[in-house]
Design brief:
Blueprint (H helix, E strand, L loop, with lengths): L2 H23 L8 H26 L5 H25 L7 H15 L8 E3 L6 E3 L12 H6 L1
Helix pairs in contact: 2-3, 2-4, 3-4
This protein binds zinc ion.
The site of zinc ion has 8 residues, from loops.
């Protein structure tokens, strides 16, 4: 076998593998319908409301601390999953787990009436209070950075 024929074989092999793997690399371009996004937000809000209710139960001594911590952990995971699905349904963006956790905690703090420190700006889309520096509205997902430059 000559070097040339080996290289040709390798090249053909790579092309073949690339062809087989093609469906995995094609980026999903389909737009998630707005109704689907709103559905994700509604589910997330429901979980946040459940977390708020659980916090209240814990504060009033209705639920034991181990149970509270366990339940809250799973609820926060669920909310993070929904929020991540929602973020992924929006075009060209990704958030780190830390950012998502921070967003969820901020959302919980907000519905509990504990306003996070910092300057608050109403979301141009839905009017909910957003923190200065936030990239997206925690309530409706509006791109605040885009809105700020407009
Ligand atoms: Zn909003």
């Amino acid at each position: 076998m000559t070097i040339g024929s080996i290289l040709l074989s390798v090249a053909l092999f790579i092309i073949f593998i690339g062809y087989l793997a093609r469906p995995f690399f094609i980026k999903e371009q389909e737009d998630t319908p707005r109704s689907r996004r709103l559905d994700l937000l509604a589910q997330k809000d429901q979980i946040l409301a459940d977390i708020q209710a659980l916090d209240f139960e814990f504060e009033t001594g209705t639920v034991s601390e181990p149970e509270y911590r366990q339940q809250r952990y799973f609820m926060v995971q669920d909310a993070a999953l929904l929020l991540r699905k929602f973020e992924q349904s929006l075009p060209q963006k990704s958030m780190s787990d830390d950012e998502i956790d921070a967003k969820i905690e901020a959302a919980i703090a907000k519905i509990r009436g504990i306003e996070p420190t910092g300057i608050e700006i109403p979301c141009p889309e839905c009017g909910a209070a957003t923190k200065q520096g936030d990239k997206f509205c925690a309530t409706c997902g509006f791109n605040l950075q885009e809105g700020a430059t407009a």
